Amino acid sequence: MVAVTIGHNVYLPSIAKESMRSYCSQCGFPQATCLCQHLSSIISPVELVILQHSKEATHAKNTARLVSLCVEKTTVYSGIHTYDFNTAQTHIEQSAAGLVYPGENSQPIESTAFSDHPPPLLILLDGSWSQAYGLYQRLSWLHHLPQWHFNHAPPSAYRIRHTARGYSLSTLEAAAYALQVGYGVDSRPLHQLQQAMQEQWRGPVAHQRGK
């Protein structure tokens, strides 16, 4: 099952909308939790490509689609098998890309190695730690790309999704930090959008971080 988000358009498999609830045609959220009034566009000097594990595509609390709603030049490719990402590979190989992933040879995004030559295309992996690791292992063509990690990222403020790793960032927070530190972009609209999503969230409290 593959879902692709291009620019500000979200395309999800029909299983994501099996219920009879009415959805907003712009943000893709249920009308009761529509986020359109909280959207502010970020003009980005870098193209963001998000490689998303297929299990995240229909997850109601996934933040990758929030990034695509807010940041211009964002593309999300979703899948699990190698062939699901053939189009993504072609897309990425047309540019000098960098990958946000804490690999053995990754360098800090806060370093001059990044600021001296910031990549025009930046890749993020969307999923749990194990899902992101699985994507990285399957997509061997990512391994030769320059890799970057965060040394001084702030604690996550994404509380509505439980994780055993207290230092984990949401995909939105990772994108926001990369844009701010690596490219000097004001990423507050992203944080504000994530906060708005959390304030409107109607799920169980037990699912929240630290609960």
From TrEMBL:
Protein's recorded name: tRNA-uridine aminocarboxypropyltransferase
UniProt source species: Salinimonas sediminis
GO biological process: tRNA processing
Domain called DTW: residue spans: 20-206
EC annotation from Swiss-Prot or TrEMBL: 2.5.1.25
Alphabetical keyword list: S-adenosyl-L-methionine, Transferase, tRNA processing
GO molecular function: tRNA-uridine aminocarboxypropyltransferase activity
Family: Belongs to the TDD superfamily. DTWD2 family.
Annotated InterPro entries: DTW, DTWD2/TAPT
Pfam families for the chain: DTW (PF03942)
Protein origin, superkingdom: Bacteria
